Inverse folding.
């Protein structure tokens, strides 16, 4: 969702920096993009605070960080260009679509409510019940199972390094969306796009045939 549905990497960076500062830490934009984006919030908390937390602490701190993000991003929320038309096109061709994100349920509901895109996704997977976050393949394998589609027949759209690795480990093809990183940094994916404006099912089929 983050960086693929909505172009929000900059705002997640600001929220993580604000959160870390409260605890006397500094995190760079590079660290957020390379080590945070795509991972479960609980895992990132342990990276920042350098200690294990009990579940109630993880939930409280992560909720606080996510609230910062929603407040910062509320007036700037914007879809990645071309996405609504692309989703409509895929749905018209009976392509099964899943939203698989490490974001917490509250963020998923918030984004889908603001963008009106929920109707396009047959399956929605958030951080709930995901034991191992990206770069582990768990979330994508769960989405494939829910869609009743073999992993090898799935294509993942990802902007984050952790997510790309997770998709590859799941045995899926990956289309890199260059919102969080430069296209040259995503060359290890199967295809790189800037956004969805020039993308079609035929172009994808032609590329992977």
């Amino acid at each position: 969702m983050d960086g693929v549905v909505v172009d929000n990497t900059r705002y997640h960076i600001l929220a993580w920096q604000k959160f870390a500062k409260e605890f006397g830490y500094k995190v760079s934009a590079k660290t957020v993009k390379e080590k945070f984006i795509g991972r479960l919030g609980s895992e990132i908390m342990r990276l920042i605070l350098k200690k294990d937390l009990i579940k109630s602490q993880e939930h409280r701190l992560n909720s606080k960080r996510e609230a910062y993000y929603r407040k910062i991003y509320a007036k700037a929320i914007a879809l990645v260009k071309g996405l609504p038309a692309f989703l409509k096109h895929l749905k018209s061709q009976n392509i099964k679509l899943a939203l698989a994100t490490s974001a917490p349920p509250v963020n998923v509901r918030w984004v889908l409510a603001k963008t009106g895109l929920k109707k396009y996704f047959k399956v929605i997977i958030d951080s709930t019940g995901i034991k191992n976050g990206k770069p582990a393949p768990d979330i994508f394998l769960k989405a494939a199972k829910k869609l009743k589609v073999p992993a090898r027949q799935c294509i993942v759209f990802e902007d984050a390094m952790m997510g790309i690795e997770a998709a590859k480990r799941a045995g899926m093809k990956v289309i890199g969306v260059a919102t969080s990183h430069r296209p040259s940094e995503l060359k290890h994916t199967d295809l790189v796009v800037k956004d969805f404006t020039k993308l079609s099912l035929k172009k994808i089929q032609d590329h992977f045939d």
The radius of gyration is 17 Å. The chain has two domains: 9-73, 83-208. Residues 55-73 form the longest helix (19 residues).
